[in-house]
C-alpha cells in the first residue's frame, strides 16, 4: 500500500547530557522531513489503518517513508495530524533507520534506533534505545539522542550506571582533512 501526503506547514536533559552542533562533526547541515517543502511525503507499507476522525494513520510491515532523498524505514510507523497538518511521526523497529542527505556535497547522515520520533512543532528528532548517528566516519552513540533540527544541537544520554556502556555517550570525530593523518 502506498500513500502520498502533501507537504504541510511546519510549526514551530538528563544524567549525562552533552550538547553540541551535530554537524560540527562533518560540517554539513542536514534537516528532517521538510513540511514546508512542495515535495510530497510518500508512505509505503504492507498494512495501513487510517483513523481520519482522530488524525492518526498507523502503518505496519516494512514501512518506508520518503521525501526527496530523506528516508525513514521501520517495522511500524504512526503519523499524527491535527488542524495544521502532519505534526508527529513515531517509528519503531529492530532497528528503525533514518537517512538524510546533506544540503551540501558530503556524507549523508544515517541514524538508527529502536524508536525514532519526529516532532514538527518542536523541530526535534528523537532516537531512543541503542541510538547511533553516523556521518561518514563520524559517530554519535547513546541510549537517548535528541536532535534539534532548527538549531542543529544534539543532546544525548547514556543508559545509566547499570547499562553495558556504563551510562556513557560515545562520539568519534574524524579530522577534517583525513589525508594528513599519515604525514
TrEMBL record:
Residues 97-106 have a biased composition (Polar residues). Gene3D superfamilies: Lipopolysaccharide (LPS) transport protein A like domain. Keywords: Periplasm, Signal, Transport. Residues 1-32 form the signal peptide. Its main location: periplasm. Involved in the assembly of lipopolysaccharide (LPS). Required for the translocation of LPS from the inner membrane to the outer membrane. May form a bridge between the inner membrane and the outer membrane, via interactions with LptC and LptD, thereby facilitating LPS transfer across the periplasm. Belongs to the LptA family. This is Lipopolysaccharide export system protein LptA. It comes from Marinobacter mobilis. The gene is lptA.
